Amino acid sequence: MTTLTGKTAVITGGSRGIGAASAIALARQGAQVALTYVSQPDAAASVVQAIAADGGQAEYSKLDATDPNDVNRFASCIADKFSRVDILFNNAGDMVERKPLDQITVDFYRQVMDVNVLSTIMVTQAMLPMMDRGSVVINMSSLAARNGGGPNAALYAASKGATASLTRAWALEFAPRGIRVNAVAPGFVDTDFQKRHSTPDLPAKVAASCPAGKAGAPEDVARAVVYLAGEGQGFINGAMIDINGGMFMT
Fold this sequence. Notes:
The protein is α/β, with parallel strands linked by helices. It has a single domain (8-189, 217-249), classed as NAD(P)-binding Rossmann-like Domain (Rossmann fold, 3-Layer(aba) Sandwich), CATH 3.40.50. The protein is built from nine helices and seven strands; from the N terminus they run E-H-E-H-E-H-E-H-E-H-H-E-H-H-H-E. The chain has helices at residues 17-28, 41-53, 68-81, 106-127, 144-147, 154-174, 192-197, 202-209, 218-229, and strands at residues 8-11, 32-37, 57-62, 87-90, 136-140, 180-186, 240-243. The protein has a seven-stranded parallel sheet with strand order 3-2-1-4-5-6-7, with helices on both faces. It starts with 7 loop residues before the first strand and ends in a 7-residue tail after the last strand. The relative contact order is 0.15.
């Protein structure tokens, strides 16, 4: 594994689940990590404490990634503290709620698209001036972008499809600057996200139907994030890594 010592990693939504696991994994490879939270400061502090106990460096900040003023404030803090960003993981996002087509309103559309797509655009805009040749952007997509998502999750699936398209477009746009853009696309990962949006028996059902024989864990995605962040993967650009234990084929 290529060391990330001396690199700065910014992770939105890094207080829990995949974001927290990725923050810990990147720090273990030597990166100094700046993670954000929107509503759970204690969880973010726990991640930073875990990294510190492991000998790593990390800090946390509150960020509403859908608010342009807050994004600009956060970017100024990163510029003052680190001056550069080597790894940006646009992890912040949510399904918000499961709704069938006849219940989708303009306000709900904006809520889902803002938290999953607009946040990715605005944070990347704000971090890009601090990213030099050899840096990497990693976006959070989903298996839903490929298969349409679960019941009443069409809008979430559409937002993650948009993220996948942004990844490919930015890979071309940023290539002359030597900045790679890739994405991870998890399937079912047993996190707070699933507990909020799925039934309690779903992990067991996934394990029974998944070719891998289990539900995913946050660390499964974190390993892919570290892989994409490594300098040794400099020819991987515009790719989306599927992390679903083979569920896409079933």
